[in-house]
Structure formats: C-alpha cells, structure tokens
TrEMBL record:
Its main location: membrane. Residues 591-674 form the RCK C-terminal domain. It comes from Nitrosococcus halophilus (strain Nc4). This is Sodium/hydrogen exchanger. GO terms for cellular component: endomembrane system; plasma membrane. It is a multi-pass membrane protein. Residues 431-548 form the RCK N-terminal domain. One of its GO terms (molecular function) is antiporter activity. The chain crosses the membrane at residues 26-46, 53-71, 83-102, 109-130, 136-157, 169-192, 204-225, 237-255, 289-308, 314-336, 348-368, 374-397.
C-alpha cells in the first residue's frame, strides 16, 4: 500500500521530473523570483521609510510581462493575490464595530459619506466629461475617492498623530470608505453588464441578496462558529486553531461566491461574524502573516498591469492626473472638514493626509479592468496615477503640518495659542505640582494616588475623547502635545516639582525630556518604558529615573514569590531597593531565546577548557571589560559565585556567565581561548 502510494506520488505531474515546464515555473521559478525580488526591493523601500505597498507595486512593475518579463504564469500569481484581498477584507470585518460606528457617526457617516459622494461626483463627472462611459466614469470616481488605510494609519502612528483630532477625523473617513467598498463591489458587476443608471431594481436585488447572505452567515456564526471555536480553543492546539481560521474565512468566501456574490464579500462577512466572538484578537494576530504576504502578492499583480511601453507615451498625463487627484481630492476633503467646524489648518491637514489613492482604489480598478470597463491607455494612465499618489503619500503625510503652516500660519498659531491657554487655565493656581505627560491607564492610576495624598497635579494628553471624558469627570486634564515646549510651560513647568512621562513612545519621550531638561535641569523626571532597551539613552537625556514595565513586573513577581516562600518582608524590600538603586542591573542581563528581543546585549555561558589561555589567570589579567564584556557570575563545581572580584583566578571547567553584545562576546571567547584580543 505504502509502496503504491510512493509510486503514484512519483508519477504525479507536480513531483515527476517529466512535469511540464509551466508547472515547474509556478512551483519554483516564479515563487523564487517574486520572493527574491520582493526581499530586495521592499527592504530598500522600507529603508527609505516608505510604505511596503510601494515596494510590492515596484516588484510587479519590474518582474512583470511589460518590463523584464521574469514571471510568465500571471494567472497563478493573480489567484494567490486574490487570497490576500480576501484576508484583507476578513481583517476589516474583524475590526468592524457597530457601537464604534454609532459613537463616531458624525465623522464616519456624515463627513465620510459626504467625502465619498462629493469626490465621486467631481472625479466621476470629470471622467464622463472626457469621454468615459457612465459605468466606467462611476468606477473611476469611486476608485479615486478611496484613500490608503495602510499608509495613512501607519504614518500617523509613527508621527504620534493617530490620537489627535487630525487622526480621529482621518480614521473616521477611512472607516466609511472601507465599509462603502463592500457595497461598491456588489453593484459594480451590475453596472458592467450595461444596466442603465436608473434601473434601481437590479441594485436593490443585489443588495438584498447580500443582506440575505450576511444574515445566514450571522446565524451560522452565532450558533455554529462560536461553539466550534470554543471547542477548538479547549484543545489548546495552535495548529488546529489556525486551520479553523483558514477553514472559516475561506469557507465563507466560497459560500459568498456560490451565493452569487464574490469571494471578497464572503471574507468580509466571515470577519464580521468572528469579530463578535471572544476570539477576535487571537484570530487577527494569527491571520496577519497570511494576509501580509498574500496581500503583497496582490499588489505585485497590480504592478504587473503597468505597461511601461504605454506609460512612456502617456506619462505626462499620468503625472498630471496624479497631481490633479491630490489637489482636487485634498481640496474637497479639506472643504468638507472645514464645513464640519474643524479649524482651517486642521481641515487642510486632513485633506493632505487623505489625498492619495489607496489599496481599495486598486481593488476597484482591478475589477473594472477585469470586467472590461477600462482598458488601453486610459487604464494605464489611471492606474499609474494611483500608484504615483501612493508613492508620494508618506512624504505628504510626514510634512502635513509644515504644508499647513505655509498656507495657514496665522490659523495654526491661533490654534496653538488657544490650546496653550486651555492648558494654562487648567494649571492656574497650581504650585509645586506634578505634571503627568499622558493620561492613559498608567497616568490615570498615578493621578488617583496623587489625589488621595492631596498632591496637586495636571495631566496633558493628546486623545481628545479621553480628555473630554476626564474633564467631565472633574479631573485636571487638558489637551496638548508635551513634545512642544510652550505646552510644558503652559502646564506650569517653572512651578512644578516633578514630571512623569507615562506614555511608552521613546521618540516623543526624548523630545519632551529635551525641552524639560533645558528649562528645568533641577526638576525630577520619571519616565516609563516598556523594557530597558532605551534606558541609558533616556537617562542621558535627563531622566531622573526610568521605570521599565518588564523589569518592574519581574521585580514585583520575584518579591511576591519570596514572600510566599517565607522570606522576611524586610529582606525582600531591601533586595528590591538594591535592584532599583543599581538601575536594574541584576535584571537587565538574561539568556535570549529563539525569539530574541530588540536589545542586542545578552548573557552567554563560556566553559573554560583545559589548556585554555584563561586557566590560572585572574579576571583582572584577562581584562574582558576592555572588550565590552562583563563577567556576571562564575560557576565552579556546582557552586555559583555572583559578581566575582577582579582577583578571582579562573580554573579549568569553570563556567563563566558573560554579558555583552554578540560581537563583544565573540572577542571575549577568542581572548579566553587564545589570549588574543
């Protein structure tokens, strides 16, 4: 039986040496070409601090049939790319929250709906004016009305602007665009079949069909998927859990297609169903690698559609359209944001941030090209314009404040003055108070302790919703950016006795530290971090103490276990105080596992062999410190001696526990073995 199976396997077209060339290309050649090229190009793009999406698009342009032509089996690559879009929609479904939608209905439904409608009308009307058929003009209008959720959110997070008024407004509009894509993917095929614009019944039938499929999936999810995942989770098998995610997501996509909709819509609905379960976050974390890799393949296939020969002839039109898209779309969004009572400068920044095309622009254009709505030079111009706008988007987002200052310097100054006045009003009358930079969970807990001990404080935070809620509760919180010097002075820095930086953004913490230390070098500054990666950098920047979450958690757990083991509380407190006084040096050295953390320093055990250079020599003679290595302990005959003295003489078979960077540890190994530096 087993022998027959092996023989059959050897005869199969996938494993046989006589397999056809296209199959071997799909399995080996194309995959290796795509992986190798993507590794190089995307790596270079990320070094330039651009979105990986731009890198994947360039890979498609380079290896596609219209350039080097390295990849021939485009259909196979396209099918894999479609799986990426399915998983993207699945993730969006996971993140969809009806309560959040209702809470931000003014921004999401109001501003987002007006943005999509007006932008589609303006761009679609212009496309119709230049000769496109109504269905094609509508497809172009809605495609160019979309913005890039991936690029915008990533850049705003890096710039710590995601929780500002700008960030909340931009994310609200993006949320509506993502939801609108679901409806657009339903009605575009109807338009492609030549249905008249006013034939409303077909649209209603398609939407009704979509709603029916959704309620069927919702019923199956509530009464089938949730118990199914609870059973899988009870088995404690990550492999089975991953298989269950793939089965449900791809199974729902298949069901959506069989029901007359599409694979993409089925994936979105599966995400919505699982998003209502307690497994949402675990599912999202597990599916992310599949989504990122396969979505990268989708963007590669979009890049392959760019015909360089045609583009050479029409590039002026592509550049002009990209410029027009950024100006017109950005202007429409800025105008609508201003009409919704945002300050002029903030409204312009929202327009700049959302002016580009996005991943759903490419999805809609791909669908329009596939259905024959667009083609030839027109399709190349529109596709290239979207790609160009996405390429320059990170730069525009990075300098959105600079651009707004150029046009609205007076408005921005008035806004900043108004924010500073609000902070100063909150800090009015405070003396010898504490300034809390950030009012998240950590900041709020510190504030409660200070209030109970009657210490005055003021908190400054960038999340307007959090500030509003805390202010309504009567807490001394104000909106502001503590990386700006005038906000710190408005908070009464000259009169304060201490500052606590409670957020875990090292870059922002360093900026704030620079301003605080320059104005008040005598003030005590406590800084919170996730771990000790940047501990020395923060201390050198002026922090009085740096409190790493990971090390404090280790210290607290160690204290609890010692108390449970009967160690006197006085000794436990003394040990904890010594560790803190020594800046956590005891806890900062540890053995790295397979998943090494970001910091490079690590512990390594070196066993001294007989005849090694170190035998018979003292640690002082070995001078490992000159090579950047510290001997934290020596284990001899089963006895561990921590913090050995320089006079300690090394014997054969001693185990030295060394701490340092990989390069320094390599030099120390050479020194201990041969005596060479």
């Amino acid at each position: 039986m087993d022998g027959d199976f092996v023989i059959a396997l050897g005869r199969s077209r996938f494993f046989s040496p006589l397999a056809s060339k296209p199959v071997r290309q799909l399995l080996i050649d194309n995959i290796l070409i795509l992986l190798g090229t993507a590794l190089v190009v995307v790596g270079l793009i990320q070094r330039a601090r651009l979105s990986p999406i731009v890198g994947y698009l360039l890979v498609g342009v380079i290896v596609g049939p219209h350039a080097l032509g390295w990849v021939q089996d485009l259909e196979a690559v396209r099918r894999l790319g479609e799986l990426g879009v399915i998983f993207l929609m699945f993730t969006i479904g996971l993140e969809f929250s009806l309560p959040r939608l209702l809470a931000d209905k003014t921004t999401v439904l109001g501003l987002g709906g007006m943005q999509l409608g007006l932008t589609t009308l303006v761009i679609g009307g212009a496309a119709g004016f230049f000769g496109l058929q109504p269905a094609a003009a509508f497809a172009v209008g809605v495609a160019l009305a979309m913005s890039s959720t991936a690029i915008v959110c990533r850049q705003l997070v890096e710039q710590t602007e995601i929780h500002t008024r700008l960030g909340h407004t931009a994310v609200g509009i993006l949320l509506f665009q993502d939801l609108a894509t679901i409806v657009l993917l339903l009605i575009l095929p109807v338009l492609a079949e030549g249905t008249p614009w006013l034939r409303f019944s077909d649209m209603v039938a398609v939407l009704t069909q979509g709603a029916g499929v959704f309620f069927i999936l919702l019923f199956l999810g509530r009464w089938g998927v949730r118990p199914f995942f609870r059973h899988i989770a009870s088995l404690h098998s990550p492999e089975l859990f991953m298989l269950a995610i793939l089965l449900v997501s791809l199974g729902a996509a298949w069901f959506g297609q069989k029901a007359g909709l599409s694979l993409i819509l089925g994936g979105f609905m599966a995400g919505m169903v699982l998003g209502e379960t307690e497994f949402r976050h675990q599912v999202e974390a597990d599916i992310r690698p599949f989504q990122d890799v396969l979505l990268g393949l989708f963007f590669i296939t979009m890049g392959m559609l760019v015909d360089l020969k045609v583009l050479v002839q029409v590039w002026p039109a592509a550049v002009l359209l990209a410029t027009g898209l950024i100006v017109v779309k950005g202007g429409v969004i800025a105008g609508l944001a201003k009409a919704s009572h945002l300050p002029a400068s903030t409204a312009l920044r929202v327009g700049i941030v959302l002016a580009q095309g996005g991943e759903f622009s490419l999805v809609i254009l791909f669908l329009a090209l596939d259905m024959g709505l667009l083609g030839g030079a027109v399709g190349q111009v529109i596709l290239s314009a979207v790609l160009l706008s996405m390429t320059v988007a990170p730069v525009l987002i990075r300098f959105n404040t600079t651009l707004a200052e150029y046009f609205f310097a007076g408005s921005l100054q008035r806004i900043r003055t108004g924010i500073a006045q609000q902070v100063a009003e909150t800090a009015k009358g405070l003396e010898s108070h504490i300034i809390l930079c950030g009012y998240g969970r950590v900041g709020q807990n510190i504030g409660r302790f200070l209030a109970e001990e009657n210490f005055p404080y003021i908190a400054v935070d960038l999340d307007p919703y959090r500030v509003r809620a805390a202010t309504e509760a009567g807490e001394p919180v104000s909106y502001g950016d503590v990386t700006r010097e005038h906000i710190l002075h408005a908070a009464g820095l000259e009169r304060a006795q201490a500052v606590v930086i409670t957020f875990n953004d090292t870059r922002s913490a360093l900026k704030a530290l620079g301003h605080i230390h320059a104005s008040r070098p005598d003030i005590s500054i406590l800084v919170r971090t996730i771990d000790d990666t940047h501990l020395e950098e923060l201390l050198n920047a002026g922090a009085t103490e740096v409190i790493p979450d990971a090390l404090e958690a280790s210290l607290t757990l160690a204290a609890h276990i010692l108390l449970l083991l009967g160690v006197p509380i006085r000794r436990v407190l003394r040990r904890s105080t010594e560790v803190r006084a020594d800046r956590y040096s005891l806890l900062r050295t540890f053995f790295h596992g397979r998943r090494s953390p970001r910091r490079r320093e690590r512990l390594q055990v070196f066993r001294v062999p007989k005849g090694g250079y170190a035998v018979g020599r003292t640690l002082q003679e070995l001078a490992l410190g000159r090579h950047g290595v510290t001997v934290t302990a020596v284990r001899r005959q089963g006895i561990r001696r921590a913090n050995p003295t320089p006079e300690m003489r090394i014997e054969a078979e001693d185990a030295l526990i060394l701490h340092g960077s990989p390069e320094a540890l390599q030099r120390a190994d050479r020194r201990l073995l041969t005596g060479k530096p």
